[in-house]
Protein backbone atom coordinates (compact mmCIF):
# COMPACT_ATOMS: atom_id res chain seq x y z
CA UNK A 1 0.00 0.00 0.00
CA UNK A 2 2.83 2.37 0.83
CA UNK A 3 4.56 1.59 -2.43
CA UNK A 4 1.46 2.46 -4.48
CA UNK A 5 1.14 5.81 -2.73
CA UNK A 6 4.85 6.35 -3.12
CA UNK A 7 4.84 5.69 -6.88
CA UNK A 8 1.79 7.89 -7.48
CA UNK A 9 3.45 10.79 -5.65
CA UNK A 10 6.62 10.31 -7.67
CA UNK A 11 4.63 10.39 -10.92
CA UNK A 12 2.68 13.52 -9.95
CA UNK A 13 5.71 15.51 -8.80
CA UNK A 14 8.30 14.96 -11.47
CA UNK A 15 10.10 18.31 -11.04
CA UNK A 16 10.69 18.24 -7.29
CA UNK A 17 10.75 14.49 -6.79
CA UNK A 18 14.20 14.25 -5.20
CA UNK A 19 13.50 16.01 -1.86
CA UNK A 20 10.07 14.39 -1.49
CA UNK A 21 11.56 11.11 -2.60
CA UNK A 22 14.38 11.24 -0.07
CA UNK A 23 12.06 12.36 2.72
CA UNK A 24 9.55 9.60 2.04
CA UNK A 25 12.30 6.99 1.87
CA UNK A 26 13.77 8.29 5.13
CA UNK A 27 10.37 8.30 6.85
CA UNK A 28 9.54 4.79 5.65
CA UNK A 29 12.97 3.55 6.71
CA UNK A 30 12.61 5.16 10.15
CA UNK A 31 9.18 3.55 10.59
CA UNK A 32 10.59 0.17 9.64
CA UNK A 33 13.46 0.55 12.10
CA UNK A 34 11.01 1.61 14.80
CA UNK A 35 8.88 -1.45 14.18
CA UNK A 36 11.99 -3.63 14.37
CA UNK A 37 12.89 -2.09 17.74
CA UNK A 38 9.34 -2.68 19.00
CA UNK A 39 9.60 -6.36 18.07
CA UNK A 40 12.95 -6.60 19.88
CA UNK A 41 11.43 -4.97 22.97
CA UNK A 42 8.43 -7.29 23.00
CA UNK A 43 10.63 -10.36 22.63
CA UNK A 44 12.78 -9.21 25.54
CA UNK A 45 9.72 -8.54 27.68
CA UNK A 46 8.22 -11.96 26.95
CA UNK A 47 11.54 -13.72 27.56
CA UNK A 48 11.62 -12.14 31.00
CA UNK A 49 8.10 -13.44 31.66
CA UNK A 50 9.15 -16.93 30.56
CA UNK A 51 12.07 -16.69 32.96
CA UNK A 52 9.71 -15.72 35.79
CA UNK A 53 7.40 -18.61 34.93
CA UNK A 54 10.40 -20.98 35.02
CA UNK A 55 11.38 -19.70 38.45
CA UNK A 56 7.85 -20.30 39.77
CA UNK A 57 7.69 -23.77 38.22
CA UNK A 58 11.07 -24.72 39.70
CA UNK A 59 10.05 -23.38 43.11
CA UNK A 60 6.70 -25.17 43.41
CA UNK A 61 7.34 -28.39 41.47
CA UNK A 62 9.15 -30.28 44.26
CA UNK A 63 6.56 -29.28 46.88
CA UNK A 64 3.59 -31.33 48.05
CA UNK A 65 0.85 -31.15 45.38
CA UNK A 66 -1.90 -30.61 47.95
CA UNK A 67 -0.15 -27.60 49.48
CA UNK A 68 -1.95 -24.26 49.21
CA UNK A 69 -0.56 -21.54 47.00
CA UNK A 70 -1.79 -18.18 45.77
CA UNK A 71 -2.05 -17.04 42.20
CA UNK A 72 -2.84 -13.63 40.78
CA UNK A 73 -5.60 -13.84 38.16
CA UNK A 74 -6.69 -10.58 36.58
CA UNK A 75 -5.59 -8.52 39.55
CA UNK A 76 -7.30 -10.84 42.08
CA UNK A 77 -5.33 -13.10 44.39
CA UNK A 78 -6.91 -16.56 44.51
CA UNK A 79 -6.09 -19.53 46.69
CA UNK A 80 -5.47 -22.81 44.90
CA UNK A 81 -3.40 -25.95 45.36
CA UNK A 82 -0.08 -26.56 43.66
CA UNK A 83 -1.77 -29.41 41.76
CA UNK A 84 -4.18 -26.89 40.18
CA UNK A 85 -1.69 -24.07 39.61
CA UNK A 86 1.34 -25.91 38.24
CA UNK A 87 -0.27 -27.08 34.95
CA UNK A 88 -1.69 -23.60 34.32
CA UNK A 89 1.70 -21.94 34.85
CA UNK A 90 3.34 -24.50 32.54
CA UNK A 91 0.70 -23.87 29.83
CA UNK A 92 1.22 -20.12 30.15
CA UNK A 93 4.98 -20.58 29.79
CA UNK A 94 4.52 -22.74 26.68
CA UNK A 95 2.15 -20.16 25.21
CA UNK A 96 4.66 -17.40 25.81
CA UNK A 97 7.38 -19.47 24.16
CA UNK A 98 5.16 -19.95 21.09
CA UNK A 99 4.55 -16.20 20.88
CA UNK A 100 8.31 -15.58 21.16
CA UNK A 101 8.89 -18.04 18.30
CA UNK A 102 6.37 -16.19 16.12
CA UNK A 103 7.88 -12.84 17.03
CA UNK A 104 11.34 -14.14 16.13
CA UNK A 105 9.99 -15.19 12.74
CA UNK A 106 8.43 -11.74 12.29
CA UNK A 107 11.75 -10.21 13.36
CA UNK A 108 13.64 -12.13 10.69
CA UNK A 109 11.09 -11.10 8.04
CA UNK A 110 11.38 -7.46 9.12
CA UNK A 111 15.20 -7.64 9.04
CA UNK A 112 15.05 -9.03 5.50
CA UNK A 113 12.52 -6.36 4.50
CA UNK A 114 14.80 -3.64 5.89
CA UNK A 115 17.84 -5.14 4.16
CA UNK A 116 15.94 -5.23 0.85
CA UNK A 117 14.78 -1.64 1.39
CA UNK A 118 18.36 -0.55 2.16
CA UNK A 119 19.61 -2.26 -0.99
CA UNK A 120 16.82 -0.86 -3.16
CA UNK A 121 17.37 2.74 -2.05
CA UNK A 122 21.11 2.38 -1.37
CA UNK A 123 20.77 3.40 2.27
CA UNK A 124 23.97 3.48 4.25
CA UNK A 125 24.21 4.28 7.93
CA UNK A 126 27.16 6.49 8.70
CA UNK A 127 28.46 5.32 12.04
CA UNK A 128 31.79 7.08 11.67
CA UNK A 129 30.15 10.53 11.88
CA UNK A 130 28.37 9.74 15.14
CA UNK A 131 31.55 8.23 16.58
CA UNK A 132 33.45 11.38 15.62
CA UNK A 133 30.78 13.54 17.30
CA UNK A 134 30.89 11.36 20.42
CA UNK A 135 34.66 11.67 20.62
CA UNK A 136 34.58 15.45 20.15
CA UNK A 137 31.90 15.86 22.84
CA UNK A 138 33.95 13.76 25.24
CA UNK A 139 36.97 15.96 24.60
CA UNK A 140 34.90 19.09 25.22
CA UNK A 141 33.43 17.60 28.41
CA UNK A 142 36.82 16.70 29.83
CA UNK A 143 38.18 20.17 29.01
CA UNK A 144 35.32 21.91 30.80
CA UNK A 145 35.88 20.38 34.20
CA UNK A 146 37.27 17.48 36.15
CA UNK A 147 33.90 16.34 37.51
CA UNK A 148 32.39 15.60 34.07
CA UNK A 149 34.80 12.78 33.24
CA UNK A 150 34.55 10.78 36.47
CA UNK A 151 30.75 11.20 36.70
CA UNK A 152 30.16 9.82 33.20
CA UNK A 153 32.66 6.98 33.61
CA UNK A 154 31.31 5.85 36.99
CA UNK A 155 27.58 6.10 35.99
Automatic annotation (TrEMBL):
The organism's place on the tree of life at top rank: Eukaryota
Pfam families named in the record: Prefoldin_2
CDD domains: Prefoldin_2
Keywords: Chaperone, Coiled coil
Molecular functions (GO terms): unfolded protein binding
GO cellular component terms listed in the entry, alphabetical order: prefoldin complex
GO BP: any one term: response to cold
SUPFAM superfamilies listed in its UniProt record: Prefoldin (SSF46579)
Keyword GTP-binding among UniProt keywords: no
Bias-annotated ranges (Basic and acidic residues): 128-141
Residue ranges the record marks as coiled coil: 86-120
Residue span of region Disordered: 128-155
PANTHER family attached to this UniProt entry: PREFOLDIN SUBUNIT 2 (PTHR13303)
Family to which the UniProt record says this protein belongs: Belongs to the prefoldin subunit beta family.
Protein name per Swiss-Prot or TrEMBL: Probable prefoldin subunit 2 isoform X1
Origin species: Herrania umbratica
Gene: LOC110425332
